[in-house]
Design a protein that fits this description.
Order of helices and strands: HEHEHEHEEEHHHHHEEEEE
Number of helices: 9
Shape: globular
Largest sheet: 6 strands, mixed
Number of strands: 11
Strand order of the largest sheet: 4-3-2-1-10-11
Strand content: 15-25%
Oligomer: single chain
Length: 259
């Protein structure tokens, strides 16, 4: 019988931990030509920090606007090419849809060398089952947004939108992006944040004690108890003014800000 980790000498356990490549998580990068500094920061992140990882999970809103896989936006194309280069080094790149880029499809994924994953998704993170979400469906107090989300993601609505000329789709996308920004300015922050009961229910349904998500732009680590079980929730930061990611390895999880 092979020895368990606890039975191995301490030096061997330290060597095993050192050899384990980290898993990285990012969200809400919101790539846009309006923020060239953050575009450059994300490209550096892919070329530097992410190269040493075993996997990179992007939990939604990588792109500030995505109107279809035929979108020729140069910023988006540069990011996709950089993701493909990263994937060719052996890093598994996995992408979850957000509320800004849910039209990113299989053609785009193939171009970028990424694997699309569902929302929610459960992974084994160094022995701990971990629930991954974008986070918008946890904001159950924001009922107007959730009603609109349900309408926009109906299959016939999506197919009808994608059948429109690209210029029309871009105009519509920009209109709704501006409308979303106006709504944020007049909606109470507590309404746009996650609902505690929704978080507990998500952890309960997934049978997980850890949740990682983005969307709210309120980076933090929260401790909570669900049905007597100690749980934790990590909220990823946005990339509007500074890039950051969550780094997981056998020793734990920590937020890393880019220089």
């Amino acid at each position: 019988m092979l020895p368990t980790d606890a039975e191995r000498p301490a030096e061997d356990r330290r060597s095993a931990r050192a050899a384990a490549r980290p898993v990285l998580f990012a969200s809400d990068v919101h790539l846009s030509g309006a923020r060239p500094g953050m575009v450059a920061a994300f490209l550096r992140f892919l070329e530097q920090d992410a190269r040493g990882a075993s996997a990179l999970y992007i939990l939604g809103d990588l792109f500030d606007l995505w109107v279809g896989d035929d979108d020729p936006d140069p910023v988006n194309l540069r990011a996709m090419e950089a993701l493909a280069r990263l994937a060719r080094t052996g890093v598994a790149v996995r992408l979850m849809h957000g509320n800004r880029d849910f039209l990113f499809g299989e053609d785009g994924a193939q171009h970028a060398g990424v694997e699309l994953i569902g929302d929610p998704t459960v992974i084994d993170l160094f022995g701990t089952p971990t629930l991954l979400m974008h986070g918008d469906t946890l904001c159950t107090d924001d009922t107007p947004y959730l009603r609109a989300r349900a309408r926009y993601r109906r299959p016939w609505v999506l197919s009808g939108f994608l059948a429109l000329p690209r210029a029309v789709r871009v105009a519509i996308g920009r209109h709704f992006r501006a409308k979303s920004e106006r709504s944020k300015r007049v909606t109470a922050p507590t309404i746009m944040d996650v609902n505690d009961a929704a978080v507990a229910d998500a952890l309960r349904q997934a049978d997980c004690a850890r949740l990682i998500h983005g969307h709210t732009h309120r980076p933090a680590r929260h401790e909570l108890t669900v049905d007597g079980r100690a749980c934790e929730r990590f909220v990823l930061a946005d990339w509007y003014t500074r890039g950051s990611y969550l780094r997981a390895d056998p020793d734990g999880l920590r937020a890393v800000e880019l220089a």
